[in-house]
Structure formats: structure tokens, C-alpha cells
TrEMBL record:
Protein name in UniProt: N-acetylglucosamine kinase
Keyword Translocase: no
ATPase BadF/BadG/BcrA/BcrD type domain ranges (all copies): 8-304
Molecular function in Gene Ontology: kinase activity
Length: 323
């Protein structure tokens, strides 16, 4: 067992596992598929994570056996309610990876990756979510389970919105848009209606609609009015999440960091980011908005190192290894 942390950032589409010594040295790292318990179930999620953890441990020491580290910091997509947290904590603790374990939503790893531990983080990946932690420890976040919990946005949602507008442009119910030929070209179909039929019969997976997100952003940047309507709404939603969190934590008028993460926000699309920055400047003029510059797995590891009570040198070493 190493004197250090087993860190897991488990998203919907990928999982990163780091084995990190107490001085911040990365001993091994592994990437594998997403394993959200909401999607595959608790047992299957734990099995996937266990395989990745064992792989990471044996990359460092081929003879490694559990326990592998003093603390496990598992920050996972789909841990939205206490009962999900408790179920996964029980399941993962039984695997014996470490003497202590923390299981939480992956949004906390994003926040720690971009800050010292307090501020606001907004993620837009497969879904959309936000968390805020005040300097006094008060915490606020959202259930983030889609429209059922009031959400608007996320990669899956935006893919559906893009297709919806392309369908209506083709059949005359909506204005023409560059999204229509972009969808046809991307999926190599004869028409948008052809794609809809293939989706209906399972010949094209519904999850592939997330592939349309870069096309949506590109069309908005190029001036397409229909695409801009969607992207403008997304930027507004990001600002709403951040500002509502700051207001409820009494941080709206004080200097604070707002960290952006997830594939949609970290893709570097300037049209989207300009509108997020402008909206945050209006709503929270003392806040500093930035895109996270290290992977959320680093945030998971930092949260684990925080639990061990190590010094700032370890954080500098860990961050430096990714820059």
C-alpha cells in the first residue's frame, strides 16, 4: 500500500484513475470507459472501476494487492442523491482499495481542479451541472438529472436540439439553417428524415447525436441564426447556474472564481465563451471566470490529498506534472 491517494474521475463517457503519492507524484494513470451507476447499475459500475483501479495499481507495482493506497477519492457522474452516494460507497468500500474512501459527484473534482476548494464550477459535458462551495464550507449544488430537475443543456440535450431544428428546417415547420446540411453530411444520409428513421429503428445510436455539438457551435460561430439561438440559450443557462449559486451562497458581490469544465465548455469555442464571460461580468462583476486547465482527475487527487493533510508542495507537484 502506498502512502497516497487512489483518485477516480468517473464521467459518463470516460473514467480516469490516478495513483498519486502523498508528495504529489503521479505513480500511474489509466483511462477507461464511462461507468455511471445511473446508466449501468451499481454492480456493473463497481466492476468497471475495480478493473481500472487494479490496472492502475499494477502499472506501478505488478505485484500490487489491495489495499493500494491510504485513501480513495472517487468522484463519479451520477452521484446526484444521497442514496446513490451511500449505495456506491458501500459497494466500493467492499473492494478494499484503501483504508478510507470518499464517494461524491464528479462536479466537486472539477471545482477542486480549478480552485483551492471554494468557488463555483459549472460543467457542460454529457449533462450540465453546477456546484458552489463558500469559504466557510457551505455547499450548494443541483440534482442535475435533466429536465426533470429543471436542467437545460448538456451534450445529449444539445444533440437533440440540433436534430430538432434540422428536421423542422427540412420539412418547412422552421426556418432554414446550416444545421440541416451539416447533419446530413455528418451522418452520410440522404436527408434528415432518413436519419430520423434510422434512429427510430436503432440503426444509429441515439447517443451519437452528441457528435453534432461541434457542428452546432461551428454554425453559431459562422453566424447561423438558428444555431446562435441555441448557443445563446446555453450561455445564458451557464450564467444562470453560476449566478444563482453565488446568490444563494451570498457570494454574488465578492471576488470568487467560476470554473468551467466539460467537453462543450472546454472545446475552446469563442462565440460561446464570450457570451458566458459577458453574462457573468454582468451578473457577478467581481467574479473571475476561466476554463479549467488540468483534468478533473487532478481535482479528485487533490481532494484526496486534502484528506491526508499534506502540504502545498504536493499540490504544486501534482499540478506541475499536467502543465
Amino acid at each position: 500500500m502506498i502512502d497516497g491517494v487512489l483518485a477516480i474521475d468517473g464521467g459518463n463517457s470516460k473514467t480516469d484513475v490516478l495513483l498519486v503519492a502523498a508528495d504529489g507524484t503521479v505513480l500511474s494513470r489509466v483511462r477507461g470507459p464511462g461507468a455511471s451507476a445511473q446508466t449501468v447499475g451499481v454492480a456493473a459500475s463497481a466492476a468497471t472501476l475495480d478493473a481500472l483501479v487494479r490496472q492502475a495499481a499494477r502499472r506501478f507495482d505488478p505485484a500490487a494487492r489491495a489495499p493500494y493506497a491510504r485513501h480513495t477519492a472517487a468522484y463519479l457522474a451520477g452521484v446526484d442523491f444521497r442514496r446513490e452516494q451511500e449505495a456506491l460507497t458501500r459497494e466500493l468500500a467492499e473492494l478494499g482499495w484503501s483504508t478510507e474512501i470518499t464517494v461524491e459527484n464528479d462536479i466537486f473534482a472539477l471545482l477542486r481542479a480549478g480552485t483551492s476548494g471554494h468557488g463555483v464550477a459549472v460543467v457542460c459535458g454529457a449533462g450540465i451541472n453546477c456546484v458552489g462551495v463558500a469559504p466557510d464550507g457551505r455547499t450548494l449544488r443541483f440534482p442535475a438529472i435533466g429536465r426533470l430537475s429543471g436542467d437545460w443543456g448538456g451534450g445529449s440535450f444539445l444533440g437533440d436540439e440540433t436534430l430538432w431544428r434540422a428536421v423542422r428546417a427540412e420539412d418547412g415547420r422552421g426556418p432554414d439553417t446550416a444545421l440541416r446540411p451539416a447533419v446530413i453530411d455528418h451522418f452520410a444520409v440522404s436527408s434528415v428524415a432518413d436519419l430520423v428513421e434510422r434512429l427510430h429503428f436503432g440503426e444509429v445510436g441515439r447517443s451519437r447525436l452528441q457528435e453534432l455539438n461541434p457542428l452546432l457551435l461551428a454554425a453559431a460561430s459562422a453566424g447561423d441564426a438558428v444555431a446562435r439561438e441555441v448557443v445563446d440559450r446555453l450561455a445564458k443557462e451557464v450564467v444562470l447556474l453560476a449566478s444563482a449559486t453565488l446568490r444563494r451562497l451570498d457570494l454574488l458581490h465578492v471576488p470568487v472564481d467560476i470554473v468551467l469544465g466539460g467537453g462543450v465548455l472546454t472545446g475552446g469555442d469563442q462565440y460561446l465563451l464570450d457570451r458566458v464571460h459577458a453574462g457573468c461580468d454582468r451578473a457577478a462583476p467581481k467574479a473571475t471566470v476561466r476554463v479549467v486547465d488540468v483534468p478533473p482527475a487532478v481535482g479528485a487527487a487533490l481532494l484526496g490529498l486534502d484528506k491526508l493533510g499534506v502540504g502545498a508542495d504536493a499540490e504544486h507537484r501534482l499540478r506541475g506534472s499536467y502543465r
